[in-house]
Amino acid sequence: MDSEEGTVVLVSKEGDKFPVPKAVAYMSGLAKDTIDDENDDDEPEVPLPNVKADVLRKVIEYCEHYLKEKMTDIEKPLKSNKMSDVVQEWYATFVDSEEHEMLFELILAANFMDIKPLLELASAAVAAMMKGRTPEEIRKVFKIQEGDFTPEEENRVREENKWCEEA
């Protein structure tokens, strides 16, 4: 059997099972390593204890689309705060239509599952929301209370995220 034929079952934090083609599962470095380490060729299961079912559905939707239409590379620094200026329309709509909490969940899931293009897309969407805004505006957008960060932490965050600002 070809290494990318067959089905893999991704198992969410809640125990929900999502059968997907191996090619979709292989977009995840974690799933690929797990599958490659297993000996049975039937329908391997990949437990994802850090990924909620609703988030896993979105991850699968992304991976399925990516296999049909690869996402263009995201230029850094971001040239616009509109994702449609940064990536193809489908990808822009995918992240623009999500609540902040889901975007952060997608970032965590993509990082945990080792899906670099999804991690880049979701991170760029968050960066685009911050681009050109003052710290006060960012606090309001992301519902961050004043005093959540010390001045030192705020400066460190600014330094670490200079890449998302224009050169």
TrEMBL record:
Residue span, SKP1 component POZ domain: 8-67
Q: Which SMART domains match?
A: Skp1
The alphabetical list of record keywords is: Ubl conjugation pathway
Q: Which GO terms describe its biological process?
A: ubiquitin-dependent protein catabolic process
Please give the pathway this protein is involved in.
Protein modification; protein ubiquitination
Identify one Pfam family in the record. Answer: Skp1
The SKP1 component dimerisation domain is annotated at 116-164
Q: Which PANTHER family match?
A: SKP1
The entry's family comment says: Belongs to the SKP1 family.
The lineage, from the top, is: Eukaryota, Sar, Stramenopiles, Ochrophyta, Bacillariophyta
Q: Could you identify this protein by its name?
A: SKP1-like protein
